[in-house]
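Sample 1 of the test manifest.
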Amino acid sequence: MTGNFRTVKKKFIIIAAVVGAVAGICLGLLATGAVLLALKLSGIELHWAIYVAIGVGVALLSGAAAFFIALPSDKRIAKKLDRDFALGEKVQTMVAYSAAENPDEMVLLQREQADEALGAVAKKRIKLGGLWKFVFIPVLAAAMFVAGMVVPLDKQVDVGPQDPPYDITETQRTALLSLIADVEGSELTETVKTPVLAVLNDLLGKLETTETQTEMKAEVISAVKAIDGHVSMINNYLGVYSAIAAEETLKTLADAVVDGAAFYKASGTDIQAMETVTQFYKNAPQEIFDCITVWADEVKALYGEATTISETGRIIRNYANTLYAKLITDNTAAPDMGDSALYDALRTFISDMIKLSSSSQDGVGVAIFRAEVDKAVDKAVSAVTSDLCVQSYNCMMDDYVRNSLAKIFGLTRGEIGSNESVVPDFGGDDDDGPTHSGGFGPGDVEFGSDDLVLNPDTLEKVPYGQLINQYNAAIQERINAGDTPEELAKYIRSYFDKLYGGLGEDE
Amino acid sequence: MKNKEQIKVSGDNVEKVKAFSASIAKVKEELAKDVVGQKEIIDNVLIAIVAGGNVLLEGVPGVGKTRLVRSLGKALELPFSRIQFTPDLMPSDVTGTNVITKEADGNMKMVFNKGPIFANLVLADEINRATPKTQSAMLEVMQEHKVTVAKQTYVLSEPFFVMATENPIEQDGTYPLPEAQMDRFMFKLIVDFPSIEELADIVNMTQITMDETATAVIDGPTVLEMRELAKTVPVIGEVLNYAVKLVSGTHPELADTSDTAKKYVKYGASPRAAQALITAAKVRALMNGNYNVSYEDINALAYPVLRHRIKVNYNAVSDNVTVDGVIGMLLNEYKKYAK
């Protein structure tokens, strides 16, 4: 090709390079802006280097593609030159015959003439008609990029569970040690106290090295489950219930046993303080006695209408045999004699009933016989009450330890799980249980806890103490999710600690 | 003489190529001495001569047709003859005939008397007045460049050029050339009545002398060389296709023809039209000092090449659309291909 054509062609190459560069930059900005906008609206944030990589990659690829598309062939260049500068198809003819082997003089002359015509054109500017149609691309690219930069990250979108790091705070350490001290000073028997203390101390040790919130929660929940297990191994009143509740004549005894052991549940009070346990335990004998008395009255009423000793004896024998069959014979979980005070009390009751029913009662009147039977029943009531006080205390302490651990480490009731293997949850509206006025319970008078306040979710009037627990659980959940700056979280924890009577970090 | 050898442009011919347009310019200059105006006619006539074609001229009497051919003969140093066609003109009057002559020794022998056709430049005046037989004899000679009389063939000397005329006024008692015969003419040129200024110049010039004053500037062999040189002018495929598309666009029966042809044309141009376009375009390019054929060359020659090869239909007649009008519409419709 001639020198002048090459000179003109260079201009086209430069134009194509400029078009490629502009297209690459525009498309790079467009792609970056689009990805940035889409991810921001989805609440996803990536490292800035990724966006740069996307932009540069798209720019290079699209720029190269645009360059090769914009770069015209020699034929197209020739056509444009002939058209724009009215050269009478000289350049096109020159290009068409440029590859001719052994060109004749006419072709050579034509080439010479075309080159001469191009000599004048080479100094002129190439017309870039039609490029104005693409002006919307840079505008769109700039708009998309600016939009991507300006639009804020949508943080409300749930980006999935996060696992923030965990370090046990001084408050938590202190609270856990306080809980351990409470358990140590409690009325728990050694059989259950020792393993519970072991679990709590083990938990303290593990939390010193736990690194994430998830691990911390798992350790706490594991400790709670372990404590539930130890308590439910010692408490067997639920076993008595399971063994005899299906028998119609024994239903009252079964309910009385559970109502007695879990008497404190009827109030709907969450045991959050050792003082509450103490207070309930002080009331336990009377409360449990009242529950067991319901059964005693029913039994007494069974033989109360009998007019003869034999009839009375038959009635009590049947009852005792039924109880024995269900509680001992059919119950594979029945412990041996001496391994459970509750079972022993009921065995003694059965034995007394059988003895009375088979003993000779010559010269004894029905009333006197009946009085003997009543004594046996009353003895059983006392013995059962006595043991259920202990078992009830175990349940109360289990509740207290669970609630304390949940409060200290910000776990919700759902995360902790229920302890129905230890004590059934009657709820606050159980008709069987005694009613309370709400709040922390008798003796726990802090911040007007008996006051009724409006629950904004249910629009019901509920005790303040119940509502504050919900608020505490909710705020702990948000703190643990990492939504709250640490400085603010410290103040929130301190606030609720004070509300619950705990120590703030600044004390 | 007829040079049958293809002259390839060699290094020696470069100067001749470069001198082509200068030579033509000189011829025009000489013709301008005798012919006032008619620049386009002169250009096309020269194109036809160099391209090896013949020209059909249509114009009223007295516009200088005979003077043009005579002056041309002088400028090209070529013998010229004029044949006035009349209804009683016989073919032998054109070609010549054998006559018995007595030699010096008293023997009788047949001698062929050449007719007026035996010239390089022939003016066939009012060819449409001759009978079809005489017309066909004339046209056969135009095609073959040879005369056969009594089984004897006589080759005409090259370059051989015929300029036939038709009188558009006196159509009574004429024999219009059939389309097949018209196709043998490379061009059909319309000679317009001169303008007032041109007429004044004609009057002034002919007051001095009626004789042609043109002098020879090139000769017959030079014309033949120029013809061979013109054949080597390159033409790109796009321009060739454009010419072909123009010709096929005159055929209404074709699938991808023009809208103009579908509306106004009864019969389209023959393939000779495409040949004529390209051949003439090469000469025109060279005459204008260009060494390649352009779209502009094709467009400029479309009228003289196509006007006698297209027959318009009744739609054109009723819409008062002439053949030239149809050609103009066709060029307008196809100008998008000439880019």
